[in-house]
Amino acid sequence: MAAIAALQSSFTSLSLSSKSFFGQSLSPSLAPPLVKSIEKPGPIVVKLKRWERIKCKPNSLPVLHKMHVKLGDTVKVISGHEKGKIGEITKIIKHSSKVVVKEINLKTKHVKSKEQGEPGQIIKIEAPIHSSNVMLYSKEKNVASRVGHKTLDNGKRVRYLIKTGEIIDSAEEWKRVIKERQKTEETAIATT
User: Fold this and answer.
1) What are the strands, taking DSSP E only, across 61-120?
2) Mind giving me the DSSP string for 127-176?
3) What does the alpha-carbon distance between residue 154 and residue 120 come to, in Å, rounded to a whole number?
């Protein structure tokens, strides 16, 4: 009982009120303002790793780089450990300006088993290469060349190889690429 009485007397000696903080009255500078100041929200900054950053436009959409190669082009690798190899572009990644070339830059991937009792696998996948490391290639003349742009008589703008003058963009070529892609998708569906 004596302890409770001592505790009550110590609280009354503090003289706490609704407007005080540890026995001291609040100064007007610490009191919250009656009118809230409206501030414009600043840009949202997201902390990303250095290798995860994607350059964005002011509307937060990623910058898509223009590339000298398109899907289905035959290219020659001009630098790296796959230098001198020739292949066809199967995928384009515009955000990082990279391309995936068929049967080039193969990496091993270890895949875990999906079901119990099923063994894991080690598979080879095609890793992307930067587009500056590939050059358009002419199968007819067996030469790599830079790409140029010119307008035909009918007003159509096409790409051509500077060394050979061979036109790359043609309706027949695009139809061939689309048919090949559909065949590969059908075979992939049939195997699963």
Assistant:
1) 74-77, 86-93, 98-101, 106-111
2) PPEEGGGEEEEETTTTEEE-EEEEE-TTS-EEEEETTT--B---HHHHHH
3) 56
pLDDT of residue 128: 94
Distance CA 50, CA 37 (A): 36
Burial grade of 77 (CB within 10 A; 0-12, 13-18, 19 or more): buried
pTM of the model: 0.60
Using the 8-state DSSP alphabet, how is residue 119 labeled? P
Calculate the alpha carbon distances from 70 to 1, 75, 87, 110 in Å: 89, 10, 13, 30
CA–CA separation, 113 and 60 (whole Å): 38
Residue 19 to residue 8: CA distance in whole angstroms: 20
Cβ atoms of 128 and 99 within 8 Å: the answer is: yes
The answer for residues whose C-beta is within 8 angstroms of residue 71's C-beta and 6 or more apart is 89, 90, 91, 92, 177
**Three-class secondary structure of residue 42 per DSSP:** coil
Residue 42 has pLDDT above 60, yes or no: no
CB burial readout 140-151, b (16+ within 10 A) else e: eeeebbebeeee
Residue 181 confidence (pLDDT) above 90: no
